Amino acid sequence: EREVKAKGVEGLIEISNPNRARKGQVKTELGGNNAITVMEDADIGMLVPAVCFASFGTAGQRCTTTRRLICHSSLIGEVVPRLAKAYGQINIGDPLVKGNLCGPLHTTGAVESYRAAIEEAKSLGGKIEVGGNVLHGRYVEPTIITGLPHDCDLVKRETFAPILYVLPHNSFEEAVSINNEVAQGLSSSIFTKNTEYIFRWVGPEGADSGIANVNIPTNGAEIGGAFGGEKETGGGRESGSDAWKQYCRRATCTVNYSKSLPLAQGIDFS
Known about the structure:
Helix content is 24%, strand content 20%. By secondary structure, it is α/β, with parallel strands linked by helices. It is elongated, with a radius of gyration of 23 Å.
């Protein structure tokens, strides 16, 4: 049996014989380790709510959850306190109860992954700006961590929990490099008013993810656009203009409607 390594999930995905026999296509969509890049001209009033709900919404358990905030160093002193203040207002509890904004993690294994990531961050010199605690059962506090190198294994390894790493940058080029250095490539966003940054971001020298947003967060999906990622996130697309390709196979068909077949080889077939 052919096996495909599935990064970000446990075990292997097996491509079944029946699927191959019918020439079925394979589509995989795994984790993202997604990032929001904040340029020096970003609208902070628009940025903070976007980052909040993209990072702790669904308890950080979306493939498009924001896990890295690549923030211009001149703005970190303003952005982090505003995020921490907003995080302090999050009601954690039963998501069926009105007013609760953050529910439980899906398994006890996820809780242990969260706990292990927090402890590893502390051991590496990271600072817990807000959160960092397991509450009860499978409920944990949405967490913001600063002070870690952008290229350390912890930051580059996706933890499927509400943990946000804040990483400084000083130029567009540096921000793109940090955004693209992870193995995953689902969704990326940039907050800026600079049209040069925008067009470079969505161009060949910008984000290498399947989704490259501008002034909106990484989470969610525009139904009219093709949804999917690059690199270890997987392959193929859902929705949008490419969706039908996942359910078809290409066959090139040439039809001769005439009553002759012109040949140029000089052979008499009569």
